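Batch 3, record 17
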Amino acid sequence: MTVTRRQILAFGAATAAVTLVGIPVSKVLAAAPEMDAKIKEFTGGATPGEGKLTLTAPEIAENGNTVPISVSVDSPMTAEDHVVAVMVLAEGNPSPGVATFHFTPLSGKAEASTRIRLAKTQNVVAVARMSDGSVYMAASEVKVTIGGCGG
Amino acid sequence: MVSRREFLVASAALAGIVGTGFSGRWNRAAAQQALTEDDLLGVKPLGNVTLLHMTDLHAQLMPVYFREPSVNLGVGEVAGLPPHVTGKAFLDRYGIPGGSRNAYALSSEDFSSLGKTYGRMGGVDRIAAIVKRVRAERPDATLFLDGGDTWQGSYTAQATQADDMVEITNALGIDAMTAHWEFTYGTDRVKELVDKLNFPFLCGNVFDAEWDEPAFESTAQFERGGVKIAVIGQAFPYTPIANPRWMMANWTFGIREEQMQANVDAARAEGADVVVVLSHNGFDVDRKMASRVTGIDVLLTGHTHDALPDVVKVGNTLLVASGSNGKFVSRVDLDVAGGKVKDFKFTLIPVFSDIIAPDADMAALVTRIRAPHAAELSRELARADTLLYRRGNFNGTFDDLICDALLAERDAEIALSPGFRWGTSILPGQPITVEDIHNATAMTYPAAYRNKMTGETLKAVLEDVADNLFNPDPYYQQGGDMVRVGGFKYAINPWETMGNRVSDMTLANGETIDPGREYVVAGWASVNEGTEGPPIWDVVENHLKNNPVVGPMGDTTVAIKGQG
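Prediction for the assembled complex:
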């Protein structure tokens, strides 16, 4: 997946150290075994921690076919300490895998944004793997609604 | 320190006449003796800045009747908190005597009777008079802000595609506005109208959908009374979901809490002494946002039409709810020194049209705007034998009328009508005019469709709308009140979870809804592009031709189960 410089800049301007709607990691893992398996494969079984990773997604999707999401990881991005990859999953899609962003120290910043398709209301989950093998996770519920009747 | 002197004075004066009893039957002359324009507007100024706020005017140029909700349920952490307190409980909470002017203005209690006593409220000529007086008393220290939903909701706004409202708001001398229904005029028309405004159209949470860049200015800086004031606009975050996305396809919205924080921080960095957010989020969303975004001094909320006689404090943020339809103007006096709000004084000014003298210039402008449409506006279609109103979580009687019209004129088994919060009221005994029908229906996607829906789809629609109203997290609440129904009954438990709130669905004759059967459904205001059908106001007019006397309405269609 290519991430344009323009997207990164736009995201960089909007970023802030808040996860909009945080969902406890344990709750997410328990609810979706298929996704859990994919995460274990990505993390090599390491237990994900919370923090460092920010996932930004709309609370309610304007269009479930193209939902903008962004991930960013707080990291110095040096040779010794950097983000290796961030995986994004959509728990409720027929196939939960969405994208994996790979980073190197030359990336400068560990930030990426893309648009994803969501079949229904569900949790979007991001998992970051760091160069020291540690793993962070964040989740956000995105509602996909029929719409209308706005007063 | 909150001062509610004006309200207390008004209440006390009326209490002297009424005593402690509940009565809506004393005459208008006595009521007028009790309250003068000076009582309403003679606020002793505090500090160095005055903010005036109105919101959700819905293009009502003339004084109107607008009944506040009798049912406005709160779920989750907002249960039992204003504005989710209605009727007598609301009056008790704020110490407002039953039967008083303020009871009439702020609650649904005894509305038909009190409406006859106290008359209509609002009118932009009265609002102009209020603003002129405050500006004269506090020269160069007053800022007048409009929370949006200003351009839509009347015959003349529809006929002029909101040109009338641009002219009116320019004449009112508004300093900044934000928006929601404004966007339903479509991208091109919105741009045209914004160009005609003498003041900024602030929407910090609206972005270009392709490039994710701001589509409008977010912030305007003002200097008033030697104080630097930053005003940040927040449009209704779910406009492209609650309203047709195809009408504004180039723009993307959202709460964008992190963007709000960035805009507040930027305003402070640019030297703002006071940060005011002019929002159309809705009360519960704003209450949550105020608890999570730091540095907002005053949050002027809109969208949910709530009128509260006092501010709600969230941390250091003052939340102000100024009602709708021109019924109220909020006044917030601030004492600002050293970049901090030292003191404030809040007054919710009820715009009693029989007490506040109209501003002559504005009255003339309103007359000029309405003149080409005068015959049509006043054309009588029928007479109301019962109170017609919409506002509330579930069917209002005006919705029952619209649903009856859809069932009869579109030959349907089930009618659906959107749970808009706008739509003025008609007292028993009054004629129903073309203007009245437009006050309840005027919009840019009015086609009354007729199609088939399975019982299963119908349930899904109701569950979806219910979750958009009763999700315990305000950030996941998307729209208006519950969709109104005709020819159909159901029960709802608002405190249940998504998919589990709606039950006991039957046709009006008691026949259980079959999930697999298709039903003929008529409705209006579909968000889908290419929806076909006659405009809803024609459907209602045709129905009234055969039903010249309206009401009383039948059984209630919704049973509420469970409790918070």
